[in-house]
Amino acid sequence: MATPSVTLYTTRFCPFCIRAKMLLDHKQVAYTEIGVDMDAAKRAEMTAKAGSHTVPQIWIGEQHIGGCDELYALERAGKLDAMLS
Questions:
Q1: 3.40.190.10, 3.40.630.30, 3.40.50.720, 3.40.30.10: which CATH number matches 13-84?
Q2: Which stretches of the chain score pLDDT less than 50?
Q3: Is 3 helix (H, G, I), strand (E, B) or coil?
Q4: 12 DSSP 8-state letter
Q5: Are strands 6-10 and 57-60 parallel, antiparallel or unpaired?
Q6: Looking at residue 28, what DSSP letter applies?
Q7: 20 to 30 Å CA-CA from 14: which of 21, 55, 68, 83?
Q8: What's the longest Cα–Cα distance across the chain?
Q9: pLDDT, tens only, 24-38
Q10: pLDDT given for residue 3 in this prediction
Q11: How far is CA 27 from each of CA 22, 43, 52, 75, 79, rounded to the nearest angstrom?
Q12: Coil, strand or helix: which one is 4?
């Protein structure tokens, strides 16, 4: 079974985006980062997909995780590694 792709919609200076990427980097998880700082079309795409305009918005495979708090909650609950494998 292939490892699911991880996608994050972020902005450059968002502390929550930085924390989410730090956790994924610590776990040595490759991810695709889509910057929405200066790209209204990408921000609109993110909002339409996530139903939220806040960043980060994170997907593991086709499953929308939510933001940084939800990512860390999965980690604390011991569920993140299973989702990433």
A1: 3.40.30.10
A2: none
A3: coil
A4: T
A5: antiparallel
A6: T
A7: 83
A8: 36
A9: 999 999 999 999 999
A10: 77
A11: 9, 27, 26, 11, 13
A12: coil
